[in-house]
Design brief:
It is a single chain. The chain is an alpha/beta fold and 654 residues long. It folds into four domains: 267 residues, ANL, N-terminal domain (Rossmann fold), CATH 3.40.50.12780; 91 residues, no CATH class; 83 residues, Luciferase, Domain 3 (Luciferase, domain 3, Roll), CATH 2.30.38.10; 167 residues, GMP Synthetase, Chain A, domain 3. The strands form eight sheets. The chain has a five-stranded parallel β-sheet with strand order 4-3-5-6-7, with helices on both faces. The chain has a five-stranded mixed β-sheet with strand order 12-13-14-15-16, with helices on both faces. A four-stranded mixed β-sheet has the order 2-1-11-10, with helices on both faces. The protein is globular, with a radius of gyration of 26 Å. The N and C termini lie far apart (63 Å).
Length: 654
């Protein structure tokens, strides 16, 4: 155990009881409902968890059983994790936007007997899953709206289970305390299923020791305290949410707030004003897109002022944030910019009180990262994985580099294979992949080293730089290094580009698919009185294609200045006729591109990029919002972009 955590507090139910004893009157969790924030103290949370744990036991949940948890971030769903752990059961959170078919695999594979779900939508999925041959036995729901005529004997309301639990607790004095005491740090705390970018998801088994020690190390590294405010809005099935919104809260005792809905996250963020904030790159990209759209809609005076002071911020903002020497003139200009632009911007975004913000999950574009830091937001990168209980590397204050992910986190060791793949060893290393000894052996060595699948190296300062997924890094036929994610992130800095997929390994040149951002491009169309009837029509508009061409050529100029990547400039591209979508299998539920799936699905388009064609026809099956499937057809234009010749190094004078 970490020195920051007493040896006897080795499980989350024990930590919950400890917080109730030490900080019982302090807020532990909030939920916004009907526009009003409702708060539970640590003492109240401990009582809620106890009643629920006893109710689950009365319903038949036993030590070693698995319980699925499905829904948006809700206090009752977080309490279910602790309640299940208290009686030795194992929570298995699922992505709430998954279809029933996707959930069926996890529920069957994990041998889930119980499910705690948020509402009628998730109940309907459980009923569909239960109608198969699975072992799902009991389903409990939080929100009773729409459930009046559901009379299945396996369905139970949260309130009824807690009521039964209080009766069970009264009739079985000492049961709850005895069950909590049985738990140890080596017990399985949770099974988190990976997002499955290359196939079926794998169940990552994490122990209490893994999570408690990792959480404690993160708290010590960043000096987190009792007074932090956190907004919990990321999927509960994701390890980042589990550590930041659950694990660290139970150790540090800070308050976690759940937004009213996924649609109100940005509004609730502004209202709450968190001090500790975490988001994957896509969230920061989306926020930046929103900012840029608003600036384009602003008057010319505000627009010019914004761009002028952003150039000042780009010049010295990050150095001021890191307390590095900056000329007085730049400091004065930055102070004016903070008064007129940066401060109001942080306030509008809900970042006025942010002391520490993190991004991880995949690489963030250096330009996007620099934008936030330059405006005074202490955004840092960490590199981690589910198999690491999050932390592999972290960025220490004062050592924030936009193109690296920091130094090894506390108690983490790093080494590299001969091919450049990053490996790590730490107290957070996962126990195993559930029911997959072969996959476990392929990922984790006997002495605890884990293959990350990422290619990288340590720079001169000892910071880790991730190039790309090891399997994705390749070479063009001319020998130039090809790192698709690096290129894609540069493209996604532009507000009009939501997603990009780059190709080039063992090809003559780099080519890309582009998805436009409908909000950003739609705003441009509205300002310029450009009529369009659909995403497909807007994506094919000549002015949109011209704008995307300019952005790609700007990226090529940047690439031309990079000695290693200058040869992988983009020569050909097309704008896809539909958005890449998780429902169509093109993205994971964490919004990562399933690269091989996309390449197979659109193989004819990939080949067209490497032909002499300037147009190509495509027909694609897609899933509509109501679940119906249909076919969308389009004639896509294939465009060329200018590349920049890299200047050869100057010869030394003789």
């Amino acid at each position: 155990m970490s020195s920051a955590t007493p040896e006897n507090l080795d499980t989350f139910p024990k930590l919950c009881a400890d917080q109730a004893a030490k900080n019982g009157g302090r807020p532990a969790i909030r939920e916004k409902n009907f526009g009003i924030w409702q708060t539970w103290t640590w003492a109240q949370v401990a009582a809620e968890v106890r009643a629920l744990a006893c109710g689950l036991a009365a319903l038949g949940l036993k030590r070693g059983d698995k319980i699925a948890i499905v829904g948006d971030n809700r206090p009752r769903l977080y309490w279910t994790m602790t309640a299940a752990q208290a009686i030795g059961a194992i929570p298995v959170p699922l992505y709430q936007d998954s279809a029933a078919k996707e959930m069926t695999f996890v529920i069957d594979h994990a041998e889930v007997r119980f499910a705690m779900v948020e509402d009628q939508e998730q109940v309907d999925k459980m009923i569909e899953i239960r109608s198969g041959d699975g072992r799902l036995d009991q389903v409990i729901y939080d929100d009773a709206r729409g459930m009046r005529h559901y009379n299945h004997d396996f369905l139970h309301s949260f309130d009824d289970v807690q009521a039964a639990g209080r009766e069970f607790d009264t009739a079985n004095a000492g049961f709850y305390e005895a069950e909590v005491a049985k738990g140890t740090g080596t017990d399985t705390a949770i099974i988190l299923y990976t997002s499955g970018t290359t196939g079926q998801p794998k169940g990552v088994v994490l122990s209490f020791d893994n999570l408690v020690r990792s959480a404690a190390n993160g708290i010590a590294f960043d000096n987190l305290c009792l007074d932090e405010e956190v907004l919990a809005y990321l999927p509960m099935a994701w390890v980042g949410d589990h550590l930041f919104s659950f694990g660290q809260s139970y150790l540090a005792g800070f308050c976690v707030s759940c937004p009213e809905s996924s649609d109100t996250v940005l509004h609730d963020l502004r209202e709450l004003g968190p001090t500790y904030f975490f988001a994957p790159p896509r969230i920061f990209e989306n926020i930046l897109t929103t900012v840029m759209i608003r600036m384009e809609d602003a008057g010319w005076v505000k627009r010019r002022m914004f761009h002028y002071f952003m150039s000042v911020a780009k010049r010295c903002g990050s150095d001021i944030l890191d307390r590095k020497p900056v000329p007085l003139a730049n400091r004065l200009l930055y102070a004016i910019g903070d008064l007129l632009v940066y401060g109001p911007l942080r306030n509008t975004l809900g970042f006025s009180r942010v002391r520490l913000a993190y991004t991880a999950g995949e690489a963030i574009g250096p330009e996007i990262f620099a934008f936030y830091r330059s405006t005074g937001i202490n955004l840092k990168q960490l590199y981690g994985s589910t198999e690491a209980s999050v932390y592999i590397t972290m960025q220490p204050d004062g050592e924030i580099l936009p193109d690296t992910v920091g130094r090894p986190a506390p108690e983490v060791e790093i080494k590299f294979t001969d091919s450049g793949e990053v490996m790590f060893r730490s107290p957070g290393v996962f126990v195993e992949y559930y029911k997959s000894a072969e996959a476990t052996a392929a990922t984790k060595t006997n002495d605890g080293w884990v293959h990350t699948g990422d290619a990288g190296y340590l720079n001169e300062q000892g910071h880790l730089k991730i190039i790309d997924r090891a399997k994705d890094v390749g070479r063009l036929n001319n020998g130039a290094l090809f790192a698709p994610k690096y290129i894609e992130n540069k493209l996604k800095f532009f507000p009009e580009i939501k997603e990009a997929v780059a190709y080039g390994d063992q090809r003559d040149y780099c080519a890309v698919f582009v998805n436009i951002d409908l909000a950003a491009v739609g705003s441009w169309a509205e300002r310029n009185n450009v009529a369009y009837a659909s995403y497909q029509e807007l994506a094919a508009h000549p002015q949109v294609l011209a704008s995307i061409t300019r952005h790609i050529e700007a990226v090529n100029r940047d690439l031309s200045e990079d000695e290693k990547l200058a040869g992988s400039q983009i020569e050909r591209f097309l704008v896809l006729h539909k958005e890449l979508d998780a429902d169509d299998g093109e993205l994971t539920r964490t919004r990562k591109v399933r690269r091989s799936f996309v390449a197979d699905k659109y193989d004819s388009l990939v080949e067209a990029l490497y032909s002499k064609l300037d147009h190509t026809h495509v027909e694609t099956e897609m899933t509509f919002e109501d679940g119906r499937k249909g076919v969308i057809a389009a004639d896509l234009q294939i465009l060329s972009a200018k590349t920049i010749s890299s200047a050869p190094p100057l010869k030394a004078a003789s």
